[in-house]
């Protein structure tokens, strides 16, 4: 597992939060993208070397909708860059972590992603992501 690739923040209103983060960083989102299979609309900001992902739910069954209901807006996940997501999920499985999706799936921003269950990581939802070449 390598550097933090991005931090994901759950928001209720993506348009409003895009404006807020544009003010915060002094630059607009470089991309917005809907991931239909996940029921989310996302936007991405770069601030220096750091990437922030904002996530809004697009339907009430979306994991983001459930998160907002339970916890409200705030940090939703931390994503780490990995070179080989299949090898890394296998390694972590052997270490006893619960992988939410053992077969990596296509996430936003051109990545293959897999998530670790937060109950095994001190309450933090961990995303592994590998750039799709
Ligand atoms: Co993410």
Automatic annotation (TrEMBL):
Molecular function (Gene Ontology), one example: metal ion binding
Domain VOC positions:
3-131
| SUPFAM superfamilies assigned to the protein according to its UniProt record, in alphabetical order | Glyoxalase/Bleomycin resistance protein/Dihydroxybiphenyl dioxygenase
List the Pfam families.
Answer: Glyoxalase_4
Record-stated family: Belongs to the methylmalonyl-CoA epimerase family.
> What is the designated name of this protein?
Methylmalonyl-CoA epimerase
- Entry's InterPro entries? Glyas_Bleomycin-R_OHBP_Dase, MeMalonyl-CoA_epimerase, MMCE/EMCE_epimerase, VOC_core
> Per UniProt, which keywords does this protein have?
Metal-binding
Q: Which GO terms describe its biological process?
A: L-methylmalonyl-CoA metabolic process
């Amino acid at each position: 597992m390598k550097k933090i690739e991005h931090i994901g923040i759950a928001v209720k209103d993506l348009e409003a939060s895009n404006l807020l983060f544009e003010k915060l960083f002094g630059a607009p989102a470089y991309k917005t993208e809907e991931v239909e299979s996940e029921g989310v609309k996302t936007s991405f900001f770069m601030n220096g070397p750091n990437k922030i992902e904002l996530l809004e739910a697009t339907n009430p069954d979306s994991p983001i909708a459930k998160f907002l209901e339970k916890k409200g807006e705030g940090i939703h996940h931390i994503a780490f860059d990995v070179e080989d997501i299949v090898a890394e999920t296998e390694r972590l499985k052997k270490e006893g972590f619960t992988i939410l999706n053992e077969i990596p799936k296509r996430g936003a921003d051109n990545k293959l992603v897999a998530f670790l269950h937060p109950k095994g990581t001190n309450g933090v939802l961990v995303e592994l992501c590998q750039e799709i070449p």
